[in-house]
Each structure stands twice: as C-alpha cells, then as structure tokens.
Amino acid sequence: MKTLRSLLVAAALIMGSSVMAQNIVTSNEVNLTLSSTTTREQLFQLRNDMIAHGLDFQYTPQFDANRNLIGISYSVRATTGGLVVCQSNSNVNLTATSAHIHLVKQNGKFVEQN
Description:
- The protein has helices at residues 2-20, 40-52, and strands spanning 24-25, 29-34, 55-63, 69-78, 84-87, 92-93, 99-106, 109-112.
- It is α+β, with helices and mostly antiparallel strands.
- The longest helix has 19 residues, at 2-20.
- The model is unreliable at 9-20 (pLDDT under 50).
C-alpha cells in the first residue's frame, strides 16, 4: 500500500511538472505561455515565482463554467520602482489563442522580448 501511494505521488509530480515545463521563471528570464488549460493554482504559483525574482505579476482571469481559463488581462511591474515591464492592452481571448510573456534581464532590469 505504501509503495502504491509513493508511485501515485511520483506520477502526480511528473504530470504536474510536465504541464508547467513550458513556463520558465528564473532570475534572468521569464517565459510564460498562458492558455485555456492554465489553472488558478498555476497562475498563483507563477505570480509567487515572479515576486521571488523582483516582478509583480498582476492578472485578472476569466473562467467559464467548467473552470477553464477563457481570458486574461495582465501587467508585469518591477517590485522596486513599479515600472511596467509588459502588459496586455486588452483582455486576451484564450479560447482562440494563448498569451505569451517573454522577459529577459538586461543591464539589471527585465525587458520584454518579442
């Protein structure tokens, strides 16, 4: 029974990491892809990861009745100075596309990459 429980936990960890594998948050780079499969928990974790690296990820999600993310508006600011690094100009419709946030650190500050 203990072995089965351990295997289930390991499988859950592997599945969870593969879902988040596309998202990178390090001290020198942020590369995120937000889609209709992104969960509230993942958004919250991404926000916490970014805060740890000096970025404040503010977002307003829209979910459908099945708790699928269907839209999001966001901004990313430096935690010191409050300078906007990037933001969505409008609500991104995630049923038709995905939102990409790609930032790299240059000269000690994060800048948006296209």
